[in-house]
Amino acid sequence: MHNEIQQSNPPLLEFKNLTVIKNNGMKVLDSIDITINVGENIAIIGPNGSGKSSLIKAITREFYPLPDGKETIYKIWGNESWNVSDLRYLLGIVSNDLQQACALRISARDIVLSGFFSSIGLYRHIVTREIENKVDDVLDFLEVSHLAGRSMVTLSSGEARRVLIARALVHDPKALVLDEPTNSLDLHAFSKFLGLMRKIACSGTNIILVTHHLQDIIPEISRVILIKDGKIFKDGNKEEVLSKENISELFEVKAEIFARNGYYHALV
What we know:
Helix content: 25-40%
Oligomer: single chain
Shape: globular
CATH superfamily of one domain: P-loop containing nucleotide triphosphate hydrolases
CATH architecture of one domain: 3-Layer(aba) Sandwich
CATH topology of one domain: Rossmann fold
Strand content: 15-25%
Order of helices and strands: HEEEHEEHHHHEHEEEHHEE
């Protein structure tokens, strides 16, 4: 079934020779080649300043590639031109920037509801019974119904993160993009969050995880991309890419890698 899906649909993401230069002249992505098919769960790993956040902004069309004379492919779901608001039906994005923007005296339920309107909070929006039912289903699925009436500013980091995932999932996107999702989580919240990612992956939604923590990589992720200095350093099977040689060179530190119960850990 997985092969049939890949053959009948275009790649979820297809980038070739993707180069991004910021206004200050700094090259943040350098000739990036990435293809992600429907059904793939992947992790993108790199140190701070490696280009991970810039790659996310290229995916969300906040950054656009620089024409440099080379053949450039910049497609999402087979199309090069997108209305940014329409991308939410394909890609659900959860980032620390979004979490900060949503830290308001607005109920968690209204934050999830506003995902239907690409807003933060409700402003004369018409909320139908169908929308209400969908929100209830997603809150139940993510086990956060008890947070619906709470103000976002009263939630812990882990609780707020789960509410924002609910907001991202209301459109049943093809993929959920998680940008450094476990930052600031304590051990209990971290463990609960990993279980949540596994549940989402098993439900059929692609996981695209962007992180610098190996322990964030759930067993359902089979492919890992390493990024360094704005370039793809390694891309391939998780077991091959997550070697002590690769991780040591990526982070410029001598590291030992070990796997346990499907999770990877680094010791320095």
